[in-house]
């Protein structure tokens, strides 16, 4: 039977034997040059040598402590091991009966410990648990196909390879950062065997000095590695630096216990004997993460799962000792030493000497409002920091990640180029984008988004639908026309057309165009609707769904329609798209409605067409120039109806322009 873990004295339980910190409470430090049966090869044999640099995860440091007697056999002082990870994997195979390449502690929810390979499945389950937790913190990236994350202290790369393979539709790249060359070689070999070298980068470096620029990764991720750090604050600061604004930092690790019954001296002695630098408890880790800039830092206690892991190891080692094949005496001594050490670990867990769990945090986003918002901006998300309101100290240390503009704030190339390198997102409170140099944004890697987009779209659709009906019925020309007191009959003033009997010609097939067509279909299912876009942008699915007819040439479309609706964006190819030629193709009884951008229509050509009455009417919500000069002839045309760019002028839209900013971020 295994020794009782509770039989040790409190002091011995708290400090116990010295653990191999470079091997993180694992077993490889318990092997000497005489290996367990079945593990004899050169991987695990070396003599102790002086380490000229600071210890890292790849170093296996021998246990230092007094020799003890175990069942009459001298407790051996193991030698340094050249390749501890391969010894670990062999230990899993020979003692735990597990061929997994996962060497992290596991999560045991719903797993049967007695099933073969249970330890590896629990370790894999822990990796999945942490990834799912990470993505729950990044809802804006859940449906993405280009998630980029870094595994700090990645070991053999098993976790990264598993996640990239399992989530190939989401993760585009995983960077494995690790100091140990042998571990990295294993990761490279495995990635190559699985044909994943284009999605797995293996980098030999320290997580205390990450060799990448800032704001690179959606997620900084680590399993059971930071315990080896000389200074945890430096590690957390490096993770903060390389994480994108709004990104997540998620890691599991062994942490100092916070049992008030343990003295500071006991905990310090435990850390010293196990060569742990910067031994922090969960509350101290949370505070340190917050000090480097992270927000919403929380701890999830999984120490119960750690205890199960040790109990399974104890059970397996005890079984080998009692029922296994005959081993050389030195191997039995090593297993007995290991069994006794596991018992102490279990006791230390129960006494609260150390904990194990997950820390998760978010990197905040620094936002700059370059214009006055139409309604007050009320920040409800603590991850968003308004640099317009922060103290000078913060403002000097943190430049904006997000810049907010409106339609009046012109953003040409020189303005885009002058933005700080930290800017990744430009939000405009407008439907149009013609005030922004999109090519310059693309060249600088800046994403452009529009706030209030749904509200704007719905308002423009409703507004335009009214104009179509009023235009077809010649309603604006009826303002002030008196109802006849005598001589009225059924044929009086009935030259207008119905929505059902007309042909509507639409230029463009964006959100507004498709939404408008859908609304027309509800009112007049049989209305003929024709549209034109460049041939490469023709949409057969939408044509079928909305009963559209495609017309390749704009001149052909203009000649067939009763009302012409340019619903395209303004760019170099659409400037003056509706020119004299197109207006000349319209039927005399046809009209034009412009709710897009004024410059899409050639104002001089339109003025001439209305003057000559070659078209019936024009309804303009936008003009070029805007506003028109007071003496412009269009103001005096009785068949031209000009509105003050009014399609979205409701408080509903103004509020959505502002409240949408935070969800976009």
Task: Walk me through what this model shows.
- With about 675 residues, the protein is α/β, with parallel strands linked by helices.
- It contains 21 helices and 21 strands.
- Helix 16 links the parallel strand 16 (about 530) and strand 17.
- Helix 6 (about 230-240) crosses helix 8 (about 280-290) and helix 14 packs antiparallel against helix 20 (about 650-660).
- The longest helix has 23 residues, at about 330-350.
Short description:
This protein is α/β, with parallel strands linked by helices.
Which bin fits the share of residues in helices? 25-40%
**Largest sheet report:** 7 strands, mixed
- How large is the count of helical segments? 21
Average pLDDT score: 83
Distance between the termini: 59 Å
Q: What is the rounded Rg?
A: 36 Å
The rough form would be described as elongated
Q: What are the salient characteristics of this protein?
A:
665 residues; alpha/beta; 7-stranded mixed β-sheet; 21 helices; 21 strands; 34% helix; disordered N terminus
């Amino acid at each position: 039977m295994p020794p009782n873990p509770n039989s040790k004295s409190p002091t011995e339980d708290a400090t116990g034997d010295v653990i191999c910190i470079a091997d993180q409470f694992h077993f490889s430090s318990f092997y000497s040059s005489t290996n367990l049966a079945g593990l004899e090869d050169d991987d695990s044999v070396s003599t102790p040598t002086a380490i000229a640099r600071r210890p890292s995860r790849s170093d296996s440091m021998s246990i230092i402590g007094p020799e003890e007697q175990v069942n009459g056999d001298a407790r051996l002082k193991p030698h340094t091991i050249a390749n501890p990870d391969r010894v670990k994997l062999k230990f899993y195979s020979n003692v735990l009966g597990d061929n997994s390449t996962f060497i992290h502690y596991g999560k045991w929810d719903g797993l049967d410990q007695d099933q073969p390979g249970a330890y590896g499945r629990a370790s894999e389950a822990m990796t999945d648990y942490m990834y799912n937790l990470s993505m729950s913190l990044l809802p804006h990236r859940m449906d993405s196909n280009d998630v980029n994350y870094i595994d700090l202290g990645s070991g053999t790369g098993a976790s990264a390879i598993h996640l990239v393979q399992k989530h190939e539709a989401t993760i585009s790249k995983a960077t494995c950062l690790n100091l140990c060359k042998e571990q990295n070689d294993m990761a490279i070999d495995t990635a190559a065997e699985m044909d994943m070298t284009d999605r797995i980068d293996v980098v030999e470096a320290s997580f205390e000095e990450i060799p990448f620029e800032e704001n690179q990764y959606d997620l900084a991720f680590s399993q059971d590695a930071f315990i080896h750090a000389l200074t945890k604050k430096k590690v957390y600061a490096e993770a903060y630096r390389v994480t994108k604004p709004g990104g997540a930092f998620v890691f599991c690790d062994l942490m100092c216990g916070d049992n008030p019954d343990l003295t500071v001296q006991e905990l310090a002695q435990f850390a010293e004997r196990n060569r742990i630098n910067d031994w922090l408890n969960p509350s101290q880790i949370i505070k340190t993460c917050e000090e480097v800039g992270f927000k919403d830092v929380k701890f999830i206690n999984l120490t119960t799962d750690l205890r199960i892991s040790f109990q399974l190891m104890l059970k397996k080692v005890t079984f080998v000792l009692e029922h296994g094949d005959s081993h050389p005496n030195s191997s039995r001594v090593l297993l007995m030493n290991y069994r006794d050490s596991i018992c102490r670990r279990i006791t230390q867990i129960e006494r609260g000497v150390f904990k194990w769990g997950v820390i998760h945090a978010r990197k905040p986003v620094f936002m700059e409002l370059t214009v006055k918002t139409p309604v007050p901006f009320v920040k409800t998300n603590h991850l968003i920091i308004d640099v317009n309101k922060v103290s000078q100290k913060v403002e000097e240390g943190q430049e904006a990640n997000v810049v907010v503009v409106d339609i009046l704030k012109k953003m040409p190339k020189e303005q885009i180029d002058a933005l700080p390198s930290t800017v990744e997102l430009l939000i405009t409170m407008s439907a149009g984008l013609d005030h922004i140099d999109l090519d310059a944004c693309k060249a600088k890697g800046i994403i452009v988004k529009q706030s209030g987009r749904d509200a704007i779209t719905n308002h423009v659709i409703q507004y335009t639908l009214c104009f179509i009906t009023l235009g077809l019925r010649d309603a604006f020309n009826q303002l002030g026309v008196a109802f006849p007191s005598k001589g009225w009959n059924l044929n009086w003033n009935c030259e207008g057309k119905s929505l059902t009997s007309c042909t509507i010609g639409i230029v463009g097939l964006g959100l507004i165009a498709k939404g408008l067509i859908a609304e027309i279909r509800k009112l007049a299912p049989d209305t003929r609707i024709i549209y034109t876009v460049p041939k490469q942008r023709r949409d057969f699915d939408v044509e079928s769904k909305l009963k559209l007819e495609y017309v390749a040439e704009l001149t052909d479309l203009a000649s067939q329609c009763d009302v012409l609706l340019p619903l395209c964006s303004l760019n170099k190819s659409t400037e003056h798209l509706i020119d004299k030629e197109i207006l000349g193709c319209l039927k005399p009884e046809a009209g034009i409605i412009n709710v897009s951008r004024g410059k899409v229509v050639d104002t001089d050509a339109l003025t001439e067409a209305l003057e000559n009455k070659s078209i019936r009417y024009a309804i303009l919500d936008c003009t070029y120039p805007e506003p028109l000069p007071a003496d412009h002839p269009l103001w005096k045309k009785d068949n031209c109806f000009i509105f003050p760019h009014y399609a979205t002028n409701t408080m509903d839209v103004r509020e959505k322009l502002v409240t949408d900013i935070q969800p976009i971020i």
